[in-house]
């Protein structure tokens, strides 16, 4: 029999455990704590990456490392110190700073991983998603759902830097990663101010009757900073007027949504934007989801 401290004190039981191993099996009673822990025990740790440092190394990479086939993107992944041996920011998110120099083109490709982009520096870049050119500007949130061909081209002499976020860790864990090369150039080098997706879907509270079916991913490719900024500013203004508009005192927040469902923009990634008044603070809280 097996004792309370896990020692085996009979030849029959010792043979049983040997047969477990020989038959590629494992008894649950020896693994319950690992398979179903009483509480999470995350390996990832809280960490701050300073933008000034990130932009400096991104700019130096732009001076020294060409963009194009092979590496495909000049993107510098954020590595969580608690996840050695990976390039993951959290157990479920890969996050990077991507830098595109003046008049550069990042060739088209597609992958099964879902992606978002948040522009931090620069103007004059277009991302082409499934043939639809989408303007990128500072503060914009842009979506590239899985298996959409996409590339980027910079029409100016100045660089742009943005934050990339992808569900690569989750995709790798579930073994659903696919990748395919596309055109060496973007398929449409036009530079419209408004993309076709926005012309159809970016009208507040209005849904085209040609698109009544629900979609897993948001069909809206860009969420513009002017709308995000205005929504946050109005929450704080309403708070000043005595109306309950903020999530807590001095804390305005919005969630980007899929206009066909009202839910999250993609099934594996939630996107939000928060603004704190000067001097405001938020209470500590526990969450099981990870964020960047």
From TrEMBL:
Signal peptide bounds: none
GO molecular function terms noted in the UniProt entry: oxidoreductase activity, acting on single donors with incorporation of molecular oxygen, incorporation of two atoms of oxygen
UniProt keywords, alphabetically: Dioxygenase, Oxidoreductase
CDD domains for the chain: cupin_GDO-like_N (cd02216)
Cupin type-2 domain: residues covered: 101-164
Keyword Oxidoreductase annotated: yes
UniProt superkingdom: Bacteria
InterPro entries from the UniProt entry: Cupin_2, GDO-like, RmlC-like_jellyroll, RmlC_Cupin_sf
Keyword Nucleotidyltransferase included in the entry's annotation: no
PANTHER family, sorted: 1,2-DIOXYGENASE PROTEIN-RELATED, CUPIN
Protein name per Swiss-Prot or TrEMBL: Cupin domain-containing protein
Source organism per UniProt: Candidatus Agrococcus pullicola
């Amino acid at each position: 029999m097996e004792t309370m401290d896990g020692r085996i004190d009979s030849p029959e039981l010792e043979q049983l455990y040997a047969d477990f191993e020989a038959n590629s099996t494992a008894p649950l009673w020896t693994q319950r704590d690992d398979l179903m822990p009483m509480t999470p025990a995350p390996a990832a740790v809280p960490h701050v990456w300073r933008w000034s440092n990130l932009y400096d190394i991104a700019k130096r990479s732009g001076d020294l490392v060409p963009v194009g086939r092979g590496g495909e993107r000049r993107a510098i992944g954020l590595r969580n110190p608690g996840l050695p041996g990976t390039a993951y920011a959290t157990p479920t998110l890969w996050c990077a700073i991507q830098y595109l120099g003046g008049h550069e083109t990042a060739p088209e490709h597609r992958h099964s991983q879902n992606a978002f982009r948040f522009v931090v520096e620069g103007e004059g870049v277009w991302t082409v998603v499934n043939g639809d050119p989408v303007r990128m500007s500072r503060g914009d949130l842009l979506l590239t759902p899985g298996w959409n061909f996409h590339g980027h081209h910079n029409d100016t002499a100045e660089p742009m830097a943005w934050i990339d976020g992808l569900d690569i860790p989750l995709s790798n864990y579930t073994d659903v990663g696919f990748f395919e090369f596309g055109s060496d150039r973007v398929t449409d080098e036009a530079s419209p101010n408004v993309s076709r997706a926005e012309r159809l879907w970016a009208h507040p509270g209005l849904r085209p009757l040609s698109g009544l079916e629900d979609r897993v991913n948001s069909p809206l490719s860009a969420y513009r900073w002017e709308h995000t900024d205005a929504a946050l500013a109005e929450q704080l203004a309403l708070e000043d007027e005595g109306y309950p508009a903020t999530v807590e005192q001095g804390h305005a927040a919005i969630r980007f949504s899929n206009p066909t469902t009202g839910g999250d923009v993609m099934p594996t990634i939630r996107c939000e934007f928060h603004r704190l008044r000067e001097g405001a603070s938020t209470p500590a809280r526990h969450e099981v989801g990870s964020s960047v």
